[in-house]
Automatic annotation (TrEMBL):
Keyword entries, A-Z: Guanine-nucleotide releasing factor
Polar residues biased stretches: 8-25
Listed SMART domains: RasGEF, RasGEFN
Protein's name in the database: Ras-specific guanine nucleotide-releasing factor 2
CDD domains: RasGEF (cd00155)
Xref: SUPFAM superfamilies: Ras GEF (SSF48366)
Domain Ras-GEF: 179-411
Length: 414
């Protein structure tokens, strides 16, 4: 076996370093005395208390020949390579955890600036390590770049707080002056901003079904309220017209908006509009629906079939599976799934162990939600449209809508 290990040449005065040196070789083993063979090292390791680990033996065997006299190192660098290997392994594990955390759960750092600064300081400290290997340095720089990029994107994206402040602004546009495309795009933008603001912690423990749900799951409650407000706006806008033709035109326009939302993968927006059109106050208006064209009715049936709750939203699940983000799914579908798992599966097995099968099912659902949350839409914000969509002065409650419906088309005598 000795013939496979090159000897140090006699003319070692040149001191040239071979380019074949392994990059992961510990610094204090990069130079060896001439005439020392791999077998002799292993044999001496077997007969002594200070054994050489397989990793360092490999490093020595692959270290380049042709070095001159070894440089002078301090005592700490002459210690056993075990400490060096442990440090490198620990650094790699820390970097792997941070890389996964930053890439898969960026929301943690968006909502906690103290945590983010702590991680940045840790990464900068790792970069100052003189023994850091090239691949470790590259991984550290990549994680820092990801954190900086997330910060830039967060600054560029509209936040839910910015949107809610617009409610106080005066409305400058009316429904008739806005195109179906403008309405659909801004509805999609608003829906995604509200949807992506939900932290994944709120999906645990069915907090949205508790008495103190507003404290436990405030962002899920805001999402639910936003859905109801948008649906109420659609119904109120249709019922605000006194003549049949105008109401029919409004229905046709809202169906067109819903179809554009479908093209934008905003199935939450589709359901907001179709649920409004199916309210009893609007559904009962036979004269109004008689004025709606057949193409609009056929399109509405198609949209309703896509977001139907039949078969546990079978069609919607299949559609979401085949669409690429960005997308806004219907949150209620996932909340139903989580409630079904929480109530139907125990937290512990019969042996008293944690039921990891249940945890994996919950994790799978949250991972799917996060996938849709993390991919933003490239839609330009139009304040004039969002101000109209968020104007709560236009919204009528359910009783007012039904009373108005009875006035428009009274019940037929029995």
């Amino acid at each position: 076996m000795d013939k496979f290990i090159p000897e140090s040449p006699q003319n070692s005065e040149s001191g040239e370093v071979s380019p074949c040196r392994s990059p992961s070789t510990p610094r204090h083993f990069r130079y060896r005395q001439p005439g020392v063979h791999f077998l002799s090292l292993v044999q001496s390791g077997e007969n002594s208390r200070c054994s050489v680990s397989p990793a360092s033996a490999f490093a020595i065997a692959t270290a380049a020949a042709g070095h001159g006299s070894p440089p002078v190192f301090n005592n700490s660098e002459r210690t056993c390579d075990k400490e060096f290997i442990i440090r490198r392994a620990a650094t790699n594990r820390v970097l792997n955890v941070l890389r996964h955390w930053v890439s898969k759960h960026s929301q943690d750092f968006e909502m906690n600036s103290e945590l983010k600064m702590g991680v940045i300081c840790l990464l900068e400290e790792i970069l100052r390590d003189p023994d850091l290997l090239p691949q470790e340095r590259k991984a550290t720089v990549n994680i820092l770049s990801t954190l900086s990029l997330d910060e830039q994107e967060a600054d560029a994206q509209l936040r839910i707080e910015d949107i809610l402040q617009m409610v106080e602004c005066p409305r400058s546009e009316c429904f008739e002056s806005l195109s179906a495309m403008e309405l659909a795009e801004q509805i999609t933008l608003l829906d995604h901003i509200v949807f992506r603001s939900i932290p994944y912690e709120e999906f645990l423990g069915q907090g949205w079904m508790k008495v103190d749900k507003s404290e436990r799951t405030p962002y899920i409650m805001k999402t639910s309220q936003h859905f109801n407000d948008m649906s109420n706006l659609v119904a109120s806008q249709i019922m605000s017209h006194t003549d049949v033709g105008s109401r029919a035109n409004s229905i046709e326009k809202w169906v067109a908006v819903a179809d554009i939302c479908r093209c934008l993968n905003n199935y939450n927006g589709v359901l907001e509009i179709t649920s409004a059109l199916n309210r009893s106050a609007i559904y009962r208006l036979k004269k109004t629906w008689g004025k709606v064209c057949k193409q609009t009715k056929a399109l509405m049936d198609k949209l309703q079939k896509t977001v139907s709750s039949e078969g546990r939203f079978k069609n919607l699940r299949e559609t979401l599976k085949n669409c690429n983000p960005p997308s806004v799914p219907y949150l209620g579908m996932y909340l139903t799934d989580l409630a079904f798992i929480e109530e139907g599966t125990p937290n512990f097995t019969e042996e008293g162990l944690v039921n990891f099968s249940k945890m994996r099912m919950i994790s799978h659902i949250i991972r799917e939600i996060r996938q849709f949350q993390q991919t933003p839409y490239r839609i330009e914000h139009q304040p004039k449209v969002t101000q109209y969509l968020l104007d709560k002065t236009l919204i009528m409650d359910e009783d007012t809508l039904y009373d108005l419906s009875l006035k428009i088309e009274p019940r037929l005598p029995a």
